[in-house]
Every structure is written in structure tokens, then in C-alpha cells.
Amino acid sequence: MRIEELPTPCYVIDEVLLEKNLEILNGVMKRTECKILLAQKAFSMTTMYPLIGKYLSGTTASGLYEARLGYEEMGKENHIFSPAYREDEINEIISFCDHIVFNSFSQLEKYKEKVLHYGKKTGLRINPEYSTQGGRSLYDPCAPFSRFGVTKKHFRPELLEGVSGLHFHTLCQQNSDDLETTLDVVEEKFEPWLSQMEWINFGGGYHITREDYDIPRLEACIMRMQDKYGLEVYLEPGEAVALNAGYLVATVLDTVQNGMEIAILDTSATCHMPDVLEMPYRPPLLGSGEAGENPYLYRLGGQTCLSGDTIGDYSFDQPLKSGDRLVFGNMAVYTMVKNNTFNGMSLPSIAVKNKDGEYHIVHEFSYSDFRMRLA
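== Carboxynorspermidine decarboxylase ==
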């Protein structure tokens, strides 16, 4: 199948680009002997799990269903963190996961003995209270009043018996200089207990596969904790695994005019690329430019009734017309995992571009996928 033959809207994962990212991550693992896990909250396309499993150490989950998915589909190391666990789910979670990380000492006290009884490892999330997000509180686990992790003020070392590791997660789409300064604060506040641990998890938020990412600095941070405290180091990136490895193909349905040219697409920001509105950000679009860069400017929007369902303003060399295809870049992460059927919008098909350059559909959605979510 050629790209022109794909149904739209359609997510496409490029196997060559995905494997390129995995090779970079695997290189970090080989040089430092750290372990890198796929954060399924960003990318959980199980079709690609056999490929990912060839390069990474396993998966990490944020809840029961992700834990089960990693256990059944990847079958390697499987970690989990949740701000709080449900009593009716904890037994299943323990059965699926190797490392269970708790968010508070109260949750640790409640479930620790059960975790240890089944031979699993118990961890505790700490909050170094050191923000590097530049004011983006929505994505800052160290923002004031954050619900994530135990601060030094509320740390209870007398309850650490049986705890084998510490976990922190403070970054979002950042470079390794922010990890370096974060580690300084982690050591400053929690050093007395680091040497008591077997492992430390640096969490996610690392854009390791981005072109300007400082990998040597990251590796120095990893080896610093290994050499100084004898810790096994885990990283759990999500975006870095599939960064720029997928795209979303859409079709222009109509063009209208209201103070500027507007193109209505068969895709939707709010339904198919929700981070465009939540971050917010303007996704890259093949063959387009910024406003003023090319002669024909359009605001691209979706079919839904939400007034703000707009993807952004883009300029083109030629006027857009009904039937034109548009290809949005970096649409593998936080798209498929967060999409929805608001307004009864159909979910995009999912396709893979293989190493031979051929496209094949791995899943298509229908009315039944919309109906099954409703009672």
C-alpha cells in the first residue's frame, strides 16, 4: 500500500525511525549498564512491542490496565507508579509488576508486606521540590502543592525497612542539564538514604532521541549514582521512544472564509491530537510554513463543535482544496493513548510503514468502538 491509499485520518508509525530511536536508547544502556523502560502512558502500540522489547529492558505503567498490557505484550521487567492504589486492584498489580512504587508512606505501610510476600520490589517516590519547568505547572511534578512524592519534610526513614529503591520524576521534554541540577538537589535532601537503596529510578521526561540532546551528560549522571552509591539506575522515557517516528495523515474536507482562509479537516485537535490544545503547541506539517512564509495562509480546524478545535495557522505554496492530504509530524506520542470520540468522531486508523517503505493497516475503528464506551 502507498501513502496515498491510506484511509484518513490515519496514524502512521515509521518502523525505521522508531528503530533509530531504540538504537540510541540501547546505546545508553550498553555504555552505562542502566536499564531503560518504555513509559506506556506516552506510547502503547502493542504491534511495535516485539521491536521495542529487542532494545529496551521492559515497560512501566501508571495503572492496572497498563501494568497488564506490559506484562502480557512485552513480558520483560514491568514497573508501576500510581499516586494511590485501589484495594480491589492491588493484588492484580502485584501479580503483573516487578517493582511497585508508592507515592506516600501511608500507602507504603498499607501494602508493603503484601508486595514483599510475593517477592516483588518496593519503591518510594520522592519529591525534591526543585522545579525546572519554567512555570508550566500542568507538567511540573514539583510545583507547589503537588500530589506527587514525599518531600524531605515528610520523609520517615524509620519506615524504610523493605524499601529497595527511590523514584523521582521531575522533567518534561527536557535536556540532561536539568537532570544534572535535579540530582544535586536529590543528593542534598536525600543522600543519607541513597546508600541504603538497591536502585533509583530517574523517571521520564527525557528527550534523549532529540538531535540536540546531551547524551554524554546524561550518561555522566547515571554513572554518578552508580559509582557513588552502588545503585542500579532506571530511566522510563515515553516520548523519546517514539519521538518523530510517527505522523497523522488527514484530508481537507472544505475551505471557508471568515477574516482569513480556514480549512476543515477530517481530523481533530481535541479528538486525535489533544496535546496540541493541552500543551499547547503547533505540530509540524509537511510542506507548510509559518504565517507569512508562503503566500497562502490557512487556519486548520477539525469537524467537532468545539470552537477551539483548531490545529494552528500554516502557510502553503498553493491554495488548499477539498481532497488535499496533509501530513502532521511527531504524532506517535500522546496521541493514540489520549485520543477520544467526542462528537462521535471516528478514531484514526493505525498503520505501519515498514523497512521496505510499504504501508499496511494494523487496525481500523468503527461505530462499535464509539458505542462500546457508552451505556
